[in-house]
Amino acid sequence: MHRIRQYGDPVLREATKEVTDIDGAVIALVDRMIDVMYAAPGSGLAANQIGIQKRIFVYDASDGLGPRTLINPRVVESDGEWTFEEGCLSVPGLSWEITRPNAIHLVGLDIDGNEVSIETDEYEGRIFQHEMDHLDGILLVDRLDEHQRKKAKKILARREQAANAPDPDGLRRLLGF
Q1: Is 72 in contact with 24 (CB distance < 8 Å)?
Q2: Which domains does the chain possess?
Q3: Which among 6, 9, 65, 87 counts the fewest CB atoms within 10 Å?
């Protein structure tokens, strides 16, 4: 099982590379990504969130259709605005009101290599945009206004400092801190 990379991990800042061949390794990767997404739990997961630099994300919009995959996605059209509280598996426990386009038209490939064209809005559209940001090396904190970003970076710096603090008796590790 792969671990989800957290804020500060440089792999999250790198743009991913397009998938040129959907082979058994890609299918196995997608299966692992779905397992990691559900275990987190989350509604989407980009490949680079588990350290794989491929332009793939998985998602489940809780619409009864189950998990799905998009490979080499790109937005070709967007419209409107929608503000919604958004969190991220790579920045656990924090969320912010983020404004994004409400409606998007996205194209890419499904897991079988078929071209897909999806027009969606609101929650599903937000999942797509959030995961595509990951694929481009953009994090949720980059979408914050200057005041929010400063506050978020202070919280994240304190977390990193606490995580790197000595733990001679192993108690913090044992308790999950």
Answers
A1: no
A2: 10-144 (3.90.45.10)
A3: 65
